[in-house]
Fold each of these.
Amino acid sequence: MADVENKTITHRPDLFGHFGMSVELDAVFPGEASFSNGKKYMEQITKGNIFETLGNATVSKRKIDIKTDRVLTYTALEISNIQVKESDLLLRVHLYDLGLQPKNNWVDLSNLFMYLTGQPVHFFDAKKVT
């Protein structure tokens, strides 16, 4: 097995998340092992109604004041009638494997999404945002 030079990671934003890195490893080591199985993985973690819930979201009418020129895109969605509860077992196990402590379904989903894609997602309680 060859070594992977990880200096590449600092110059390749597509490798910040697990999905990007697994695709890269499949390209570096073709036929040795299948590192990426994103489609099957996404099917497992989306058995709930999270995508249906996000599909019913609306663009927020709140004014977003970005105080830096380094943020190129910020999108806020409003989602109503959600339930905050304990995550299902599969999601909690994935988070434990990543060294994270599960909190609730929405926080856990945002943490897992960040590790998989390298893109941060945050959920806020609208009643607490000014």
Amino acid sequence: MRFAAWPAVYLLVLVPALLVLFAYAFRRRRQALAAFVARDLAQRVLPAASDRRGWTRALCVAGAAACFVVALMQPEWGPGGQELPLRGRDVIVLLDVSHSMLAEDVAPNRLAQAKAAARSLAMAVRRDGGHRLGLLTFAGRADVHCPLTRDYGLFLKRLEDATTDGVARRGTSIGAAVRQAVRAFGELEPGYTDLILISDGEDHQSLPLEAAQMLSMLEIDLTTVGVGDPNRSVPIPIAAGAAGAGYLVHDGEEVRSQMRSGLLVGMAEAAGGVYVGGQAGPARLDQWYDEQVAGKPRREFPSVTNKELAPRYGYFVLLAIVLLVLEMIMRNARGSTA
């Protein structure tokens, strides 16, 4: 059992407060009665049975208030048991986490822009629902960072955790990443899979165009997203956000990086896909999703049973109403016998 709105528990202080008010009211009534009749006569005018009936009514009202508060806390228990039909696509993000993605030709750096683009895509998929999201990060080697899942919160967490610090091999192998994505995520359904490659386009002879052509033959859609400024080269910081840490140097010379949109455009054309780019700000992949993916055919996934707990607040509302009706009956019975 759990409560979806447990902060409402603080309203339970109303229950003892009501009992205190009833006790005060009973005492004031006895004091008022004592002011008009003799003490021995008061016992006959207001017998003990009347006190018991009064407290019973008070407990009914307090119990009803407690039930309403518990209902406001939205108690849940037991499985919902609802079969959920699932229709959607597999959407896999290939995120470049090579050291060149730390370049600061876009603010704050290319990797942060790439994450912002992937995050906007995840939010659009979450709104639409049904699709599975996966994340593969790559530099010199590619690794599955998040398996295909409908747990969009997990995807977003794994996305935030992706950094250049976890790179096992330096360099950038875009072609190897594409081929690894086809192998690592199991059997991808032709016509129902979208790969989104987010990179600055730098590659170290991994045959990316041939990998894109392979996707075309497999009927897997490819969208390439360029991050960085294609019009200038910039040094590569040794670490993201490390003030004064310096820049990468090779053979005594400062290493510079320039976003290569030409490769990304060529890959998109080879795969029959599209290129999304822009030198300022993150690509709006939520808008791209609405225009390019939302209307695509979706395949049927195996139905699953809803494992969410079923809401049960109705029981407490019903019990509260029963207690209030009982209190009204006792109050009317008292009035009729008076």
Amino acid sequence: MKKITTALVAILAITLSMPAQANLKNSTSVPTLAVLDTALDTSIPSIKSRLVGEACVLDWTSCPNGTKFMEGEGSSVLPMNILSSNNFNHGTQMVSAAIARNPNMNILFVRIIGNTRTGARQNTGVLTVTNALEWVYSNKDKYNVTAIAVSQGNSKVLRRGASYCPVTATDTMVDRFYSVGIPVFFPTGNDRDTKRINWPACIPNAVAVGGVEVKNLDTPQASRISNYDPNLVDTWAPITSDVLLPGNKSGTAYGTSVANQIAAADYIALKQAKSNLTLDQLIGLIKSTSTSVANPLKQNIFMFNLGAALNG
């Protein structure tokens, strides 16, 4: 497989009108971003109108139906007291950030974080991520999945040394998606690590997304919290976004998880405009129109200039 080596930070969002939800449910022409995360408030109007499918894939029997797997309406939902907690409001934030960046796409949400009865977060491992990606792969044509954004990461599975990224079954799924032209986006992590990025972002054919500070700045700056590896970080995107919280409350989210959603949404925006291009061709276009971001650590950070790419 060819490793994606370009860097993405979109500086322009496409804002196009969306059809009604009834049309979305039956549409195969509108591209879909599959988001794998904690849980989702599906009652929020701006999310509900774009949501075309839900699933729950866990290692624990804590899906809404009391098993490890559930598909269909309500699969990603939790009681509001748990959904609105810090452990589980992340998914709603991520979906709202992606929609805000590119409202001309559908959302397929897969819950991959289990919960205890008291609302504590249960561990998610390699098996969960792999199984969730396998379910998305089986349904990619049904929902017209164009990209996948998993704004979750883990540093505990990393090994010591230069070859710190373990090879797991998740690699196989990422490779399968890449072979059919569907990129899988993961955040690099927020540990201020300048030598390693989190798993699964370190998977060779994954799209590893770092964060750039852009809010209230004349010139974008590399975020100091964003993990970095010169050989594995592929994309860079804004690290801050206005988001919605469960209960349709407004808020602000910060971290490479946000950057991950923005990069994926912007990729779909480019794919929408350049639908005749393959994934490799889109990567080439992104590389040829990227601009460098100066930073004190002298990292190789490049911004994806969406406006330039659209005109390229």
Amino acid sequence: MLKQSDKQKTFMQAYEPLCDSFYRYCRSRSIGIMDTDDLVNDTVLAVYEKFEKISSPSAFKSYLYSTAGNIAANALRRKKFSSDDPYAELKLIAQDSPELLTDYIIVSKAISNLPDQQKEALMLFEVSGFSIAEICDIQNAGESAVKQRLRRARNSIKELMEDSRITNKQVVLSIFL
């Protein structure tokens, strides 16, 4: 068993190289669900508490991202029963650029309609910048499965974006009314 100070140092050595990409991943997963900083903090705390049980540095990355995904999924399940405005965070963006907000909302809605594994693969690859091999480790899947998830996610978003040309105004109005 590690001393507390050794555990902190070892944890920080494993976490620091992933910090920026992990924050981007959490930001993309938390839209309309919870505050990004809350997701990061909850995840880091949960992973830190179980840190001694993680077998290797590569398992740490996988465990970190999987834990964040699980916390976001649990928060989404809980949020379905609350009346909070899921787009409150996005409304803040409107102060700077209404056009950006509209695009952001449409893309966020399109991504939120994806199955969880496709959404996670897309966020890890496009937002966090992970390689397909790294995503395979995180998702415990083969390379062809991850590539298939990415392809399907992109195609689904493309179809939803084409459909959104018709309902752009309805989407924005439904959020602000």
